[in-house]
Amino acid sequence: MKTITEFPRKVVEFPDMGIVMPDGCRLSARVWMPEDAGDDPVPVILEHLPYRKRDGTIFRDQLTHPYFAGHGYASIRVDMRGNGDSEGLMDDEYTEQELQDACDVIAWAASQPWCNGNVGMMGISWGGFNCLQVAAKQPPALKAVISLCSTVDRYADDIHYKGGCLLIENFGWASTMLSYSSRPPDPLIAGDNRWRDLWLTRLENEPFLAPLWLKHQHRDAYWKRGSICEDFSSVKAAVLSIGGWHDGYRNTVSNLATNIEAPVKGIVGPWIHKYPHYAAPKPAIGFLQEALRWWDRWLKDIDTGVEADPAYRAYVMDSVRPTRWHPERPGRWVAEQQWPSPNIKAEAIDLMPKGGKPAIVASPQNCGLAGGEYFPFTFGPELPGDQRPDDALSVCFDQPPLTEAIDIVGAPEVLVQLASDRRQANIAIRLCDVHPDGASELISYGVLNLTHRNSHEFPEALVLGETVSARVVLDQCAYRVPAGHHLRIAVSNAYWPMIWPSPEPVRLDLSAATLSLPLRPLAKGDEISFPAPEGATPWATETIRAANSERHVERDEKTGIVTLSIVDDFGELRDLEHDLAHGSIARETWAIHPDNPLSASGKTHWTQTLSRNGWSVRTETSAEMRSDGQNFILSARIEAYENEILVFGRDFEEKVARELV
C-alpha cells in the first residue's frame, strides 16, 4: 500500500469530540477534518461502531479517515453507546436506539458550521449493516452509503441462521461481543474518577446475547426489523456495496444490485472480512480512491463517472491448490453493465438417472471440518481446506472432466427430491472443483433446514418417509474451472461445526437432484481495473506480543470424540501516541462424536487486557453451549480484574427450547 502523507487539504484531528444525544448520553467521537473546514465547509462521512476507536479499529481508522479528511471531508468515527469511550448501555445489535443515535449524529453533524449539510455513512460488517438500516430510515442529510461485508436479511444471511439452520456463529459471536463489550473506557478520556463507575455499570448490564437470538429460531418480527429486504424501496441514498469471496457475506452485493431502486453499484473481490485496500487474498484495490469517487459524486455533486460504472464488478478466481490460507488468488476482473446479467445463462445438469435407486445420505456428525470459518478474519488458517475428507463422508456426484474451461458467476442451485426418517433434518450441498490428482477445492456451498423448505417463517415438520421437493441455493461465487478438472456436487446431512446438528441421526433417501449452474462466457482478461491501494500514515505502535492463529483437529481413539481447537492470539500492542497497551486472545473448542448429534458442544474463552503506566485491567469471558433433544443449554461467565484483583464476576445460565432446529 502506498502511504500518502501530503493531501490537498491539511488535516486536524479531534481524538474525543463529545456528541450529546437527546437523552443526555454522551457519545465519544474521533474526528478528522480539513484545518480550514470552518471557512470552507465540507461533507461528513460517519462510521458508527461498537468496536472501540481507541484500541479496536484504530489500525484501519488511521489508514482511512485522515485520507478522507485530506481530500475535503470531515470523517467521524463514533463509539456506539455502551462501548469504548461512550456512555450508556447496549442491550442488542441494531436496536432502534442504536439506529436513532446514528440518525441524531447525522443531524448534529449536518448542523455544524464546518459541514456543508451533506452526510455519507460507511462501514464494514456491523458498520455495513447499520449504515444500510440507517439509510432505510431516511435521515434528511444522508445522501450516500458505502456498505461492506453486510447483509440485507438479518435472519437468512447473517451469523445467526443460514437456510433455517442454526449457525454456530450465533453462539460464537455472542461470546465475542460478551468479551468486546466487557472492556472499560480509557481513563484519559472518561476521567480518573469516572472510568471505573462506567465500567462496573457496563459489566452489571452486559447481555449474553446467544439465548435471545436462540429464542427467535424462525424468521419472525425480531429479524424482519432491520432487514432492508422487507422494503428495498426505503433506501433512497446512493449505495456502493462491496464484498469478498472469502467472506461469509457473499450474497449481499448481488441482492443490493438487483433490488435497490436508488443508485447502486457492486464490487466483489477475492477478499476475507476486511476493507479491500489492505485485504487479502490479494489483489487488494485502491478502495479509498474508489470511495472518494462515490463521495465526490453524491456529497459534492462532482461528476466522477460513477453512474456509468458497471452495475456489478467481480473478480473471477482461478482454480488453485486447496489450502487453509491463500496470500493471493490469481484471476481477472469482469464487469456487467446490468445485474442480473443477460450474459449469464443457467445450465441444468441432472445428477441422478430418472427412476434409479435413491442415494442414501447419512453423514457422520463430524462431516464439515474442512469447511473453514464462516467469515475468515485473521489472515490465518481459516479458509476451506482440501474437501476430500468431507467428500468421503458425503454422497458425491462427479461430472465428466471438462474439455474446456468454464466461468461460474452467480448462485448455483440444486433442486432435490428426498424423504427423511426424522421430523427435522438438515442438508448441506457443496460445489467443488476436483483437480486431476483428486484434490478438491470448495467453490460454493449451501445449507437448508428441510423443515424450512417452503418458509423460514412457518416451518413444517417432515412426514417420515414422505418424498418432498426442496431448493438449496448455494452462495454467490465467481470461479474459473479449468479444462481437465471436473465438478463434484457433494451432499451431506451434517456440516459441523458450521451448523448445529439435528437432534437425532438422520437418513435421507435422495431420489432426484438437478444442478443449475450459472455460466458466463469465458473472460479473456481483465475487463475493468482499479488503482493500486493508498492509505494515510499507518498507526504507530510497539509490538509487545506478536499475533498468531492456530487450528488443530484431534480424534480421541478411545472415546471417538472429534475436537476442533482454535486459538486466535491477536497479540498485544502499545500505542506510541497515548501509550495505551491492549491485547486479546480468543480460544474456541468444538467437539462432537460422529455417531451422536447430542454430543455436540462449543466452548469459548476470551482474554482482553488494557494497561498504561502501572494501571491495568483484564477481562476473562467464557461460555459453553450444548443441547439435548428438546433444548439448547447455554452458560457464560464474565470476570473483571483491576491490577490483577477480581473486582467483578457474573454468571449466565439459560435453556431455550428447540423449535424444529
UniProtKB/TrEMBL annotation:
Residues 292-539 form the Xaa-Pro dipeptidyl-peptidase C-terminal domain. Pfam families: Peptidase_S15, PepX_C. The lineage of its organism: Bacteria, Pseudomonadati, Pseudomonadota, Alphaproteobacteria, Hyphomicrobiales. SMART domains: PepX_C. Keywords: Hydrolase. This is CocE/NonD family hydrolase. GO terms for molecular function: hydrolase activity. It comes from the Bacteria. PANTHER family: COCE_NOND FAMILY, PUTATIVE (AFU_ORTHOLOGUE AFUA_7G00600)-RELATED, PEPTIDASE S9 PROLYL OLIGOPEPTIDASE.
